Amino acid sequence: MIRFQNVSKIYHSGKEPIVALSDVSFELEKGSFVSIIGKSGSGKTTLIKLLIGEEKLTKGKIFFKEREVHKMSSKKLQNLRRKIGVVHQDYKLLFSKNVRENVEYIMQVIGASDQDISRDTPQVLELVGLMERQENFPQELSGGEKQRLAIARSLCHRPEIIIADEPTGNLDLYNTFEIINLFKKIHSFGTTVILATHNKEVIDSLEKRAITLEKGRVIHDQEKGKFIL
Amino acid sequence: MFIKLKRIFRFAWQSFSRNKGLSLQVVFIMAIAIFTLTSLFIFKDLSNFLIAKAEKKVDISVYFKKDIEEDEIFVVREGLSNFSKEIENIDYVSKEKAKEIFLERHKDDPLYLEALEQVEENPFLSSLNIKAKSPALYAQISSFLTKGPFQALVEKVSYYQSEKVISKLFALTSNIKTAGLFFSFFLIILVILMTFNTVKLTIFAFRDEISTMRLVGASSWFIRGPFVIQGFLYGILSILIVDILFLLSFAFLNSDLQTWLFDFNLLEYFQANFLNLFLLQILFAFLLGGISSFLAVRKYLKI
């Protein structure tokens, strides 16, 4: 479903070029659950940004369903993004919209009907425990609530893939496992889940495929991987 | 399609009403732009009115030699009419009529009346009073009369006495028109830039949201639409404010202004030209608000 083929990404913003990813190759099957493990700065976020076309590649190719992501037209890229639910590390919430509208917006983007939106939104908000906060704006939420909203937003439109970049970074242990169980549940319905994290407990408890990145390179790719850093 | 359009309008209204501070800022700047445009529109017609009024006060007279018959003068009048279509009016004043006018004008001045009685013969000359559409034409008319086919009949042309005044007036009207054009152009550019920058700054505050919308797969128009509609809303509100302001000012100050502006009735003018003015304002505001928003959003859509 997803194929990274010798992907490299170098940033040229400062005096010295920064190699974020170097010759990364791997393949993900439809319906798989994979963790991308790595310390801060190992390239996890860059990898996600490249997959959704937020950043341009320096070298290599990324395929989504055998279509090269970085050669897609704007329209096709737009359709690809609608099939992916992303929980960004910095949440990327819409600050001018309240909690309910943040969730609704995604469904409006994919063209869902008003009936579907008013049926599904409360369910998703209930699922992440934000029903009581639905009229609040993101700036009125705590870090954990923002994270849960980002999660709600990523799954409300039933995407084919869910990518979560440090989705439990601001959550306590109890909520962390609540969220991980939620991802497991979503995965059990056939959704592909990509989880980027450096949380040892999460990785060890998952017993799923784990790709370990270090300084932009894949150093381990194991079925039922353990946290090895 | 309809549902998307409905959502775009709803987002626009949401953003407009939720960000009152920002909206007011843009409306204020756009109101200045609309006010400038409206003022220029009024100024253009007001200056034309004043120029026309001043020009109307200017005419020239051609005086014919004593022994010239009336029929010959009528031939000259016809010749003049054929000479230029820009001649508005030619009035024939006979010797007798000229004397009557003189007597009427100086009826309370015995010195003049006595002096006229001393002269046995009517000392006045027959003349033609010529009014042209533009003061620029008077030089040509004079030249036609003094150097053309009728030169033998002409005693004198009053143009040469008032040439300086006429040419000054001509230069002044031409300068006012040119200066007005440059001034309008300069002001319009200024307010366009001012509005564009304000809209740009407003949209800059939403740059992260625009990028996020793009990343979740929203189409350019689904993102851009609400901002463009918001631009239109700013425009409509600005027009309402400006028009109410103008209408109230004209209603309360019309009589005072009319005296200052040589009988130009601003209230009547505003009411008579309201439809044209309103259409111009709408076009300007839609272009300004809509295009500014369209261009300002474009930058953040490249993701």
Question: Topology of this structure?
Answer:
The complex is a heterodimer of chains A (about 230) and B (about 300).
Chain A: E1 2-11, E2 18-28, E3 33-37, H1 44-51, E4 59-64, E5 67-68, H2 74-83, E6 84-87, H3 99-109, H4 114-127, H5 143-155, E7 161-165, H6 173-188, E8 192-197, H7 200-206, E9 209-214, E10 217-222
Parallel strand pairs in A: 3-8, 3-9, 6-7, 7-8
Antiparallel strand pairs in A: 1-2, 1-4, 4-5, 9-10
Helix pairs in contact in A: 3-4, 3-5
Chain B: H1 2-18, H2 20-56, E1 60-64, H3 70-83, E2 87-93, H4 95-105, H5 110-118, E3 127-132, H6 138-147, E4 154-157, H7 159-204, H8 207-215, H9 220-260, H10 266-272, H11 274-301
Antiparallel strand pairs in B: 1-3, 1-4, 2-3
Helix pairs in contact in B: 1-9, 2-7, 2-9, 2-11, 7-11, 9-11
Which percent range fits the helix content of chain B?
Answer: over 70%
**Main sheet makeup of chain B:** 4 strands, antiparallel
- Along the chain, the helix and strand elements of chain A come as EEEHEEHEHHHEHEHEE
Total beta-strand segments of chain A: 10
Question: What is the domain total for the residues of chain B?
Answer: 2
CATH topology heading of chain A: Rossmann fold
Number of domains of chain A: 1
Greatest chain-chain contact? A-B, 25 and 22 residues
Helices of chain A, by number, come to 7
Q: Please tell me what the overall shape of chain A is.
A: globular
The main sheet of chain B orders its strands as 2-3-1-4
Strand content of chain A: 25-35%
Oligomeric form: heterodimer
**Which regions of chain B contain 5 or more consecutive residues with pLDDT less than 50?**
none
CATH architectural name of chain A: 3-Layer(aba) Sandwich
| Percent range of helical residues of chain A | 25-40%
Q: Tell me about the biggest sheet of chain A?
A: 6 strands, mixed
Task: State the total count of DSSP E strands of chain B.
Answer: 4
Mean pLDDT of chain B: 87
CATH superfamily of chain A: P-loop containing nucleotide triphosphate hydrolases
